[in-house]
């Protein structure tokens, strides 16, 4: 097995000291241009890659980024991770992935056990506990930057990257109204999350704009799974007054609702419309296909990582809040 090329190999090839090679690679002031160019050329020829565990001792940089997610098994977060990786790997950063399973207790345990000295920064989508932010503030106060994405805490001042939850929800409900649906229900996520509130507000404001009534019994909050969506839809069907359309907080819930309605003999679209939020690939496989708001998940991952690297390189970097628009995709589930 071939070994890694080190600065000793470069020094030996050029017949110069190891310390000179090290300073040349770090572009210090006391190495002349000609020597630095020779060192860089030889490093390239030998396919040298820096040992970040070693250089971190000098530069106080590990080139490790932690990513904390509620889940990794759904399309949205896997697309976010792909975007993060594209930026991180281009800049020679390693990704250390942690999964909370949407548990605030596990989230706090992960933060408690993080080897902060071996991390340059964190990218985080918080769990469903809206008040679970003090532990993140402690990390920031210790000098390790954090950028939040998708699920973000309102109380912490740092960079955040989100999809436009309010306008996405507004567009989804207005699409249903435009298709002739007037009794619209909303099956949302956990009430503690900021984007749950924003999507609910978009839903309510769209109804208000078109003079449609709000039935509080048609607003149900639960988890994000297909099973949650199915259970929510069954609750709606048991009510004396039934809605004629459902806006779901995400596609998994929408697909669960679609399955429940089909099992109950309700014709999707003709008798009850359904629209989701995400544009999960499964939305094109179910029958009928699911109308949805496409989230820019890959771009959210990229922008989040780019912002974190700015925080790392410039400690006084002013936090930015980035909101990316979604796109309405009309499919069969909202065809009357």
TrEMBL record:
Superkingdom, taxonomy of origin: Bacteria
Alphabetized UniProt keyword annotations: DNA-binding, Transcription, Transcription regulation
Entry keyword annotation includes Transcription: yes
Matching Pfam families: LacI, Peripla_BP_3
SUPFAM superfamilies in alphabetical order: lambda repressor-like DNA-binding domains, Periplasmic binding protein-like I
Location of the HTH lacI-type domain: 5-59
Coiled-coil blocks: none
GO MF annotations in UniProt: DNA-binding transcription factor activity; transcription cis-regulatory region binding
InterPro entries named in the record: HTH_LacI, LacI/GalR-like_sensor, Lambda_DNA-bd_dom_sf, Peripla_BP_I
Gene3D superfamilies given in the database record: 3.40.50.2300, lambda repressor-like DNA-binding domains
Name by which UniProt lists this protein: Transcriptional regulator, LacI family
Organism: Niabella drilacis (strain DSM 25811 / CCM 8410 / CCUG 62505 / LMG 26954 / E90)
């Amino acid at each position: 097995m071939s070994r890694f090329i080190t600065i000793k190999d470069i020094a030996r090839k050029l017949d110069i000291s190891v310390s000179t090679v090290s300073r040349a690679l770090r572009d210090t002031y006391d190495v002349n241009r000609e020597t630095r160019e020779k060192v860089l050329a030889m490093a390239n020829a030998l396919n040298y890659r820096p040992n970040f565990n070693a250089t971190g001792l000098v530069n106080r940089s590990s080139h490790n980024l932690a990513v904390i997610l509620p889940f990794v098994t759904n399309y949205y977060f896997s697309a976010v991770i792909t975007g993060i990786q594209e930026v991180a790997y281009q800049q020679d950063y390693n990704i250390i992935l942690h999964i909370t399973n949407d548990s605030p207790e596990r989230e706090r345990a992960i933060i408690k056990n993080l080897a902060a000295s071996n991390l340059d920064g964190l990218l985080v989508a918080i769990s469903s506990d809206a008040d679970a932010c003090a532990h993140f503030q402690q990390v920031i106060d210790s000098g390790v930057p954090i950028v939040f994405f998708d699920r973000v805490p309102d109380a912490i001042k740092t960079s955040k990257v989100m999809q436009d939850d309010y306008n996405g929800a507004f567009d989804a409900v207005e699409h249903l109204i435009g298709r002739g649906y007037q009794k619209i229900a909303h099956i949302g996520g956990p009430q503690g999350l900021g984007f749950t509130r924003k999507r609910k507000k978009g839903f309510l404001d769209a109804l208000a704009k078109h003079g449609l009534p709000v039935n509080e019994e048609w607003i149900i909050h639960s988890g994000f799974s297909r099973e949650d969506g199915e259970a929510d839809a069954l609750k709606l069907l048991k009510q004396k007054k039934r809605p004629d359309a459902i806006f779901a907080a995400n596609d998994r819930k929408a697909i669960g609702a679609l399955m429940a309605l089909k099992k109950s003999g309700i014709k999707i679209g003709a008798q009850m419309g359904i629209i989701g939020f995400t544009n999960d690939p499964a939305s094109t496989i179910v029958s009928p296909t699911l109308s949805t708001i496409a989230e820019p998940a890959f771009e959210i991952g990229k922008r989040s990582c780019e912002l974190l690297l700015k925080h790392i390189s410039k400690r006084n970097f002013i936090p930015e809040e980035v909101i990316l628009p979604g796109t309405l995709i009309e499919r069969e589930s909202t065809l009357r």
